[in-house]
Design a protein that fits this description.
alpha/beta; 46% helix
C-alpha cells in the first residue's frame, strides 16, 4: 500500500509539473494529521490563492497564479483534503470549516506573515470571507471571485438548485433526475458520471456554445468526500456573514459574471456592505477567468495596480 501511495504521488507531481505556470517552489507544512502543501510563484506583496469546490485540485488556478505572479508573490494552497494535502484519517474530525480556517493561520505563520491579501474563487472566496470574519487582523484585503451566499445552509442550496434547473431544458431536467437517482444508489456508469458532471457544470456557463472548450478548465480532479464533509459542516454552521463580517474594515473586491447562477450572492454582499467594490462581467458565468479572461484580468490587474496595501 505504501509503495502504491508513493507511486501515485510521483505520478501526480510529474503531471503537475507539466501544467502551465508550474510553481517556482513547492513546499509543505507538517501538522498533526499530515502535511499541508502549497506552491509559490513570483516575488512581492503576498497573495494567498484559494481554489473552489470545495475539494477541487488547486491546479484549476495554476494559470491565474502564474499571471498574478508577474508583480506579486502568490501562494497557491492545496487545501486540506485535496491533492497532496490528505489528512489521516480523512473524516469529519479532520475536514471541516474550523480546520480549513486554522490551516490558513498555519500557512501565514509558516510564511512569517502577520497578514496577507486573500484571493479566492467560489468556495475559496467563501473560505476567505469566513477567515476574514474570524481573524480580520490577518487579512490585508479580499479579492473574491464568484462567491457563494452569506448563508450556506438550506436556503443557499435551494436557490442554487432553482437557478440551475431553470437553465436546463425539460429533457435535461428529466435526465438529471434519472442520473441523480442512480448516483444516490451508487449505480452510475463511468459514462453516466461524465454526463452528470457535464450537466452540472453547464449550469455555470453563460454561453453553452463555449461549454466544450471550458470543460477541461472547470472539470478538474476533485475529492468528493472532502466536498461532502465541508458542505455538511458548513450547513450546520451558525456563522452569518451578514453580521460577522462587520468587524472586517479593509478593502473587499468582488468579481463575478452577470449570468452566474450564484450571482444572487453578490447582491447580498453589496446590500449588507455597500463599501464593497463589485465588478460585473457581461456574458459570463461562474468562471470569469476562463469564460471572459481578457475582461477578467483587466479588472483584476487594475485592482492590484491602483491599490497600495
Amino acid at each position: 500500500m505504501e509503495k502504491i501511495r508513493i507511486r501515485c504521488l510521483i505520478i501526480f507531481f510529474i503531471a503537475y509539473c507539466a501544467l502551465p505556470g508550474f510553481a517556482q517552489k513547492t513546499d509543505s507544512i507538517k501538522y498533526r494529521n499530515g502535511f499541508l502543501y502549497y506552491h509559490e510563484y513570483g516575488k512581492g506583496e503576498t497573495i494567498v490563492l484559494l481554489t473552489g469546490g470545495p475539494g477541487n485540485s488547486c491546479s484549476q488556478l495554476s494559470d491565474m497564479a502564474a499571471k498574478i505572479s508577474t508583480n506579486h508573490r502568490v501562494i497557491l494552497l492545496e487545501e486540506r483534503g485535496t491533492g497532496l494535502s490528505i489528512p489521516v484519517p480523512l473524516d469529519s474530525n479532520t475536514i471541516n470549516l474550523q480546520t480549513a480556517i486554522s490551516d490558513l493561520n498555519l500557512l501565514l505563520d509558516h510564511l512569517g506573515l502577520k497578514e496577507a491579501i486573500l484571493c479566492g474563487h467560489s468556495w475559496g472566496a467563501t473560505l476567505a470571507l469566513y477567515f476574514a470574519a474570524t481573524f480580520p487582523e490577518r487579512v490585508k484585503a479580499l479579492i473574491i471571485i464568484a462567491p457563494s451566499s452569506m448563508l450556506m445552509g438550506r436556503e443557499r442550496r435551494q436557490t442554487l438548485q432553482f437557478n440551475r434547473t431553470a437553465k436546463w431544458s425539460e429533457k435535461e431536467n428529466k435526465r438529471m433526475e434519472i442520473l441523480t437517482r442512480k448516483m444516490n444508489s451508487d449505480e452510475l456508469t463511468d459514462d453516466e458520471a461524465k454526463e452528470y458532471r457535464y450537466l452540472i457544470l453547464s449550469g455555470f456557463v453563460a454561453n453553452m456554445e463555449r461549454i466544450d472548450s471550458l470543460m477541461p478548465y472547470m472539470d478538474v480532479p476533485r475529492n468528493q468526500k472532502t466536498q461532502q464533509l465541508i458542505f455538511k459542516d458548513v450547513a450546520k454552521s451558525k456563522i452569518d456573514l451578514r453580521t460577522s463580517l462587520a468587524s472586517f474594515k479593509k478593502p473587499v473586491y468582488i468579481i463575478d459574471g452577470r449570468q452566474d447562477i450564484l450571482s444572487f450572492a453578490d447582491y447580498e454582499y453589496k446590500i449588507s456592505y455597500p463599501s464593497y467594490e463589485l465588478h460585473w462581467i457581461q456574458d459570463c458565468g461562474h468562471y470569469p477567468m476562463f469564460e471572459q479572461p481578457e475582461v477578467f484580468y483587466n479588472i483584476l490587474f487594475d485592482i492590484l495596480a491602483r491599490q497600495r496595501w
